[in-house]
Design goal:
- The chain is globular.
- It has 3 helices and 8 strands; from the N terminus they run E-E-E-E-H-E-E-E-E-H-H.
- Strands 1, 2, 3, 4, 5, 6, 7 and 8 form an 8-stranded mixed sheet that branches.
- Strand 6 and strand 7 form a beta hairpin.
- The protein has about 140 residues and is of the alpha+beta class.
């Protein structure tokens, strides 16, 4: 049975176009979304908290997740675990210059289409594309 994580897709609207923020993995070789293990306060709180820690963004986490997907995570050199990642859209209202993991990660805003191509997992790319439909309904 997979272990659970929660994540956020930080987004903003600029000139009527949606932009998505991706962060680099700690080893800096993949573009991913902020995510983490469950915290007190529930899934949405976890997604919001991880987004701030990993990218410095604050905003409104949507009530409904965009969806979820499974992946394998390396815990150490030998151990891998299956993870189910539930992903929530986060409408960004603020971006801090100082945040806990600023020296461990790169952050960058991408167009929706570019973010879907650049992210490390095809299932995440599908969720990013799904964001376009959801954001326009808000």
């Amino acid at each position: 049975m997979p272990r659970q994580q929660y994540g956020a897709i930080p987004f903003r609207v600029r000139k009527d176009a949606i932009e998505v923020m991706l962060v680099t993995s700690r080893d800096m070789d993949q573009w991913i979304i902020p995510k983490g293990w469950p915290k007190k306060g529930g899934p949405r709180h976890t997604a919001e908290s991880e987004a701030y820690e990993e990218s410095g963004v604050r905003g409104r986490v949507h009530r409904k997740p965009l969806g979820s997907f499974k992946y394998k995570k390396k815990l150490d050199r030998k151990k891998r675990v299956r993870i189910e990642l539930k992903v929530y859209p986060l409408a960004v209202t603020k971006q801090a210059k100082q945040f806990p993991e600023r020296k461990k990660r790169g952050i960058r805003w991408f167009s929706l289409k570019e973010a879907a191509k650049r992210c490390s997992d095809p299932a995440l790319g599908r969720l990013i594309r799904k964001l376009a439909k959801r954001a326009h309904k808000q």
